[in-house]
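User: I want to check something. If I give you two sequences, will you return the structure for each one separately, not as a complex?

Assistant: Yes, each is folded on its own. Here is the first sequence with its structure:
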Amino acid sequence: MSKPMKYVYAFAEGGRDMAALLGGKGAGLAEMTRIGLPVPPGFTVTTDACKVYLKTGEEPPELAVEAAQALAGLEQAMGRTLGAPDDPLLVSVRSGARFSMPGMMETILDIGLNDESVAGIAKASGQERFAWDSYRRLVQMFGHTVMGVDGDLFEQALTAHKTRRAVADDHLLDAGELAELTEEFKAIIRKETGEDFPQDPAEQLSRAIRAVFDSWNTERARVYRQREHISEDLGTAVNVQAMVFGNLGADSGTGVAFTRDPATGERGVYGDYLPDAQGEDVVAGVRDALPLSELKKLNGRVYGELVDHLRTLENHYRDLCDVEFTVERGKLWILQTRVGKRTAEAAFRIAHDLREEGTVTEDEALVRVSGAELTRLMFPRFRTTSDDVPLAHGVPASPGAAVGAVVFDSAEAVRRAAAGEQVVLVRRETTPDDLPGMIAAQAVLTSRGGKTSHAAVVARGMGKVCVCGAEALAVDTVARRFTTGTGIVVDEGDVVSVDGTAGTVHLGELPLTASEVGRALETAAAEGPLTEAVLGALAHADSVRRLQVRANADTPEDAVRARSLGAQGIGLCRTEHMFLGERRALVEAMILAREDTAREEALAALLPLQREDFTKILEAMDGLPVTIRLLDPPLHEFLPDRMELAVRLAEAEHPDPRDRELLAAVERMHEQNPMLGLRGVRLGLAVPGLMAMQVRAVAEAATARLRAGGDPKAEIMIPLVGTVEELRLARAEAERVLAEVAAETGTGLDCPIGTMIELPRAALTAGKIAATADFFSFGTNDLTQTTWGLSRDDAEASFFPLYLEKGVFEVSPFETIDQEGVGRLVEIAVEAGRAVNPGLQTGVCGEHGGDPDSIHFFHRAGLDYVSCSPFRIPAARLEAGRAALTETTKTSDTR
């Protein structure tokens, strides 16, 4: 008989290995309780309960009983009763999904306060202002989060009271003002909902729990999960915890601390502290917090205890920890811990330093960084001079360089970005509702907040440039402008440059310079702690990875750069790029030729040009394989546009006869769907001499390199093969030309001939094709198009955004490989091909070859290499190493 499902766990019953059930926050609270840190007691409602609620609209029947029992245990531990008229127990209700979603779901503090208990807590604490401050917070949070009242209505009432009293901050309102404000808040709720704020503490608690469940499906939560690729069906846990109060006066406060700097990774204790405040005040930026070092001056004993606890947590989790804490009348409480979000720079430095300290192994350090983070570090930075005076300085919350037009709300950021404009979102402070605008913007700039503010935490997680707490900026969202301390006015639409590394914002567009990491990767020379960390991670990745990494490169310059970035060859050299520019006239002549002689003359003129191209590329990649794809696109792409020709002929007083010839050729070669027409191997077989010219150019280039003392490793790839008969014919032609060149030059050539698998039929008949191929290279761009039956350009511009929004796609199949469909064809082809030809080499040359998630799949599928653009090579090397370690871990876990 199966054990009945348990929906509620006291903190003392759990641990960090239960994150799937208790959520990350609940598992952290349980773990800290287990190791003896000062955690206010409480209990967690599991993600299983949330899943039932989201599926049925009702809580599991057992939940009410289990929650009541857990609450009774909490009341006994605290010696107080929830909402009692005298000295009541108050609790917080917080979300806590398995994966951190900062600010995306709901929190309600001070549950248990009502018209009676507010007097009781005032008497017990001896502070009437504190009691009414807590009560107004509850009514405001509950009204907005649970009862659905527009939060701006509460803010307007609060602002009116501050204006009347001529004060800037909430904490300067006295008890009488707060009591009056609370009544106004209750009246707002009554007017907007038709019901009163509930006085029953049990009702407050149960409705708050349901509200947290509901917040899983808010728009901002869905947008965040979509961006971070978090599954929709995980649900959230709910943490109910005894309240401790940081708003009890000067000897109390609240803060957020990091065990290392989340922006740079430097060792030390970093964070913000806000005296006489509750927890949400720090991240919301309602008042400018103090650096954590100020707590040492205010209360050295508490600061020392905090540092000890931070050290304990980092040693326990063996990683950067993000900790929320409260000081209640001189007593320190730890309210939350999680492995902290960090910038790409911090990720590499922390992993490197922890490895140097012996806290983690080399393998663990590598797994903790990613190719996506490395790519971000390769972005350029601003090149500034002493004459570049910033508009303002702020907190460098998330590094990088970004330029854009200033916008002052999320909707405008989304609108302009959708129109192709780069924007910078400027706010006094951001809220979770700003998430769509933060995603759309190139950078986020706020006049309030610090490294632990909502803007900073979310921007770091997304890799967005962010500067917070630029206090010199007076942001006016109504007038849609901000004013600097020196009187400069910046209106919406004006362009600014935001430097997230220096923490500055500049008027206009600053010039960019190559990143320190980019330079180091090309020279393999460390320039400082960050580049040392990056090069160390790459060196270890290279030592453990099985997948080779090649480049997609079409020019000698691309080849040189790719090799400097660690490419182990060229997996795709596109020859069509060599037919553009000044050579287009020769291609036109070949296409227009009506007789064999004219076509042969055009091909003969193209031959030395192609030979020179290949010679230079083989020289740049000397000793490494270079896979040269024969001409792939349809020939009409090398001719002028039909409409352009027609207009030119119509407007010309004396039309050029060649234009008439070109127009006739364009119309003769017109296809309804050219990407599924005469291209690839079909073109090579249909146009006499074209394939032979290209193969001869490859062979003569390789021969020239051999005679020059080089070590050329040219490979010939036949594109768009759908049947083995096509490959046999093409291979026979290629082998004939190779033999001719060998006989003419007296030089033997070892030139493998393979094919590009980019059609479903080729994948499904790979066993037959492999008998005639030396290698397979998967063209996953076309394979995705032909498998899905769609045109990438058309689909991405039309219905893809809708499909992503509705969850049809979690991610574009052109960005990350569709493992169930396209990926399955790859697996079938590899397995069938190697069954016939055990030595068959397999790789991928579509842009999926540089995508981190896709690289892990290609490793599992048994491919020999991935090939990608030169810029993505370092990230691909890193991910290939991580894939090998991840697969090893999975294998050992199953033994």
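And separately, the second sequence with its own structure:
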Amino acid sequence: MAEATSMRDRYLGLIEKIVETTLKGNIRSKEQVYRMLVRDVTPGTGEIFERCLSERLTTTQEQLNQEIDELKQAKVNRILRALQTIAGEWERWQQENRVTEVIAQTSQQIITAEPGERLGVLLRAIDPNQPQPLTLEQLQQLGKNLADTKINQTETDPEIAQLVEGIQRGLKSWEKLAPDLVSWIYDQGRSPLGFEGTSAQGGPWGVWAKQLDPSWAKTLFQTIANNQSVIDLTRQTSAIQISDLLEVTVILQCLQRGLVTWFDRLIYDAKVGAKLSISTFLTFAVIWSQLANGFNQSSEGRLFSDACFQGTLQILRTFSQQSYFPLYGGIFALFGGEYLRNALSYLDEPLSRVEGTEEKARILTMLGYSLRSFGEYNRAIQLHQEALEIAQKAGDSLCEIANLNHLSRSYLGQKNYEEAINASQRALILARQGGDRLGQANALANLGYSQVFQAREMTQVDADIYETYETAIGYLEQGLQLSTNLADLPADAFTYRQTEALCASSLGIAYVLLDKPQKALPNLVVGFKAAEFSGDLYLQGLNYAYLAQTYWSLNQFEPAMVTGFLGMYMLEQIGSNEWRQPAALLTILQGQSGANAFNDFLQEHRKNFISVIGVDGFDHLGVLLEKYQRSL
């Protein structure tokens, strides 16, 4: 406080000095004023100078307005012009020294922060969601500023010394990794980013780990490459320093930004573009969340845990602002099985710590969809209702409509058909009013889908039921037609194919329920291809399950078994209880064909299965079917 007061007095004196010198005629140009500002205003304290100048301008203007004596009026006018000259040159100083000022201010904020809070101040400064986040060059300069502070204060600020070391090591490590940012893609094909629930060998983490010097960052990357627990690593790590965590922060931020930038340039190839950008955001968000969870349970405690949660939130906020953010999709393209459940848990934790924002609503939307996939309807509804409320307050109509659509599907899962229909109708009305064709296509699909299920529950078969079916099919066909038209727009192909997958799948399933397999088949095929394009494993698995039932109804037993096995496997891998549906059909087919013929069929098609789900997946098929049969 005393230091700020002293600086204020100094700047008030500087302003008076310039004014007096100007009035005496000793300052004859604006350049002289500018040089005085450059010489006497300390970088990092510009805000104090600006307040002093603003106060002096206001006081002088008020004095001029009240003064009636002409001579005194003239003098005040000269003072005001001098102050206005200072203000103009100050604006020039700010423009030419903005970067230096930002770095100086950040450095000052870190230095004056309480011990234990300095890391958080630095992480906020490099948050990509800030209006002007520090670039790598500016971060390097910040490190130099802090290093000078350490030298001046000698051994009194070991925490600042740790920050300096972390910045320097992080930038040095990034220089080594930058040439191999995407080399793993060319060397090994479309390798996974990690955390898919399968071996991460062939992904980038091992490649990157080899480039790093021995450090905690290298150990972390090796842990991810070997598909080992990041949480266990944090528990086992002893004496980790702030510099270690800051080095990891710089590396992960640079890797994530670099990958997303590279993938975004390939946006027209959804297989390598938008899908991998989405996977990148989610992968790095989960890494930060796992680190946060691990540190929260370690001796390092709150400091490192909070820093890592900050990293998670920064990524999620950036992700939610992207055009390809999946308002109508989950995170199945990246995670499976236990990894999906853990990812949802990790991502849910940091979101519970923040107030309602537009970004939070969008992330909750995605998590709610994912939870619904394995039957957690109550929790999904809770998240979608929270997201809906936030979106309404934020005026995010697209998110509001999306959550109404998701609520419709979640209520349907609970067999609450009235609420499902109501939510889809509200979504349809809002989508039509706002011109949201994507939301309209989803609402039409949900409305028709819900009406089909509701009609099936009716015990009395009469003309009204058939009329309901006809109306419902009409809605589904409208939704599919609309989504197909939207998918023709290349810039948004990834997003719209997700909606096409839902619409085609819904229409196909409706025809299955109405016992019209001939009409169901082509729609389910379209639905599967669109789901495969968008990377939605849940809809892929669901389409396989209903394709199996369709082929069985058409007496095409071989494709029924193939699609049944794939549907059972995919749904079980993402934790969906709906895997039991194709398992039930496969049990019937096994009984009809006999155990030996059934097993022979599996072996005959082994190569085809392996091409889709791998050797481990093929070996799991028999185990999974036995698991179902034992549960009966």
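Because they were folded independently, the notes below concern the second chain alone. Residues 197 and 339 are 6 Å apart (CA to CA). The longest helix spans residues 70-96.
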